[in-house]
Amino acid sequence: MQRSCKQCGSTFEITQDDLAFYDKVSPVFNGKKELIPPPSLCPDCRLQHRFAWRNERHLFRRPCMLCGKSILANYHTNAVPPVYCLDCWWGDQWDALTSGVPLHQPQDFWSQFGMLSGSTPRPALQVLNGQNADFTNFSRDAKDCYLCFSTVHCERCLYVTHTDESRDCMDGEGDEECELCYECSNCINCYHLTHSVRCENCSDASFLYDCKSCQHCYMSANLRDRQYIFRGQQLSPDEYERQLAAEHLETVTGLNRSWHQFENVLHKALHHSLITQSENCSGDILKNCKNCRECFDCFSGEDSIRCYRSPPTFRDCCECYGVYGGSELSMEISNGKNVIRTFAAIQCQNIEECQYCIHCYSSHHLFGCIGMRNKEYCILNKQYTKEKYEMLVPEIIEHMRKTPLRSSLLRPAFAEASAGKQGYEGQAGVTEGQAGEWGAFFPIELSPFAFNETIAQEYFPITEQEAEKRGWQWREEKDEIPKVSKVIPASALPDSIDDIPDDILNWAIECETTKRPFKIIKQELEFYRKMKLPIPHFHPDERHRRRMALRNPRRLWTRPCMKCGKQMETTYAPERPETVYCEECYLKEVY
To answer: For the whole model, what pTM was predicted?
Structure first.
């Protein structure tokens, strides 16, 4: 089935497997299945909508609206919902049921949800079991970490994202079980590795791409079980150390020269999809998966479609980001642990048979709820009997089914709702060719975050004018001027780390590209000196942007293998210049 995306106009396919999945996960009320319809947006636009509800990296200083203490939060001070510190939010001083909105039929559901969203407290950050890790978000079991985002079990790490089980690492993205690594992306079980991409079991090396079990190597690609390789050439240990020292990687000049040369290495390397120990899967960076289609950065998943950044374990999930811990039979989820038979949920855990829920925990049979814990049979945070719940929810779904998707009117409705005013009534019903609200994710217009604060801007960048045209929030970034003894342009820093004084901790550095000021903290300076690396000349956000640019898009193209000509699915678009092989040809070439 071919469809045209209602947002971007592109053509996309809905397969029979897709239709079968929508039928399998559709909820049942009073013995009747409420079918989830085929989507009206293409996969990219659907992913964009989920990402627009996830602010990982933008942190703001603001007061807790319950206890009053100053806290860090990923909600701007102008964001509508009340924001509580983690102690208050998880405490028993408040009950989400007090925010409940009476259900007014046939009033528009999203207008009522906007009223609920504007009055229900949100936790300041998504942090679990953190120790000295205040400047982190979406982190679990972080210790002595600073500005780390979407991490699990990390210790003494700085400026890393999507990194798990690592310690003493800095400026990394997508790494796992690494130590003393710097500027690495998607590397696994590496030690003392810098400026490398997609490497595994490598140590004491730099500027490597797709290397495995290599030590003391520099500026090379597609190596296996090698030592003392310098620019693709075998050297003796003494000659290797002599030539490596001549590169002067402790200086900005030497490092920049190596970065430019590494771009040529990446261009000439063999490329392929990174799918290991998996069966009948498509996508990239998959491990221990089975029957997973168009999935990316997933581990131990099964029978799922278009899932992203999902660790063990999940099965029968579709259009999900960050589902794990036994999640199954769920769809349109943004971050959820043990989410079962649920449609459209954000940051939920241990929930079952729920629809359109945010920050709900250990609950079941919820519809349109926020902040619920240990609850059941609730609609818009109001308690109902099981019988009443199963009667009302199908009526809401039917009304949503008949209400066309909108965009530009939702933001004014949310503003009125947050002020306690009644929202607008539903518009005319769905006509042929239109899409109804049922089966779509939360509208971006109701997101408490500005679009450019969320990871949607990283993956699907738009301009402020485009956001305004679509009725999406946008917030101009303004850096606080740090309290420092002086501000110095990055270009004026000493070239070598050996010449950097301790007093740099009292300076602010002006980013070469963005001109945004940033500081060096003590833990960071010690890392650079230990690793013999120069002080970076770019703001941490700019360094993150450059690492993200090294990642392939989270979508697939069909193109021929450049060795055997066989058609394959890959994240490399047909017009890209890299040499891309199918898995069979790639393995023959590198082993």
So the answer is: 0.92
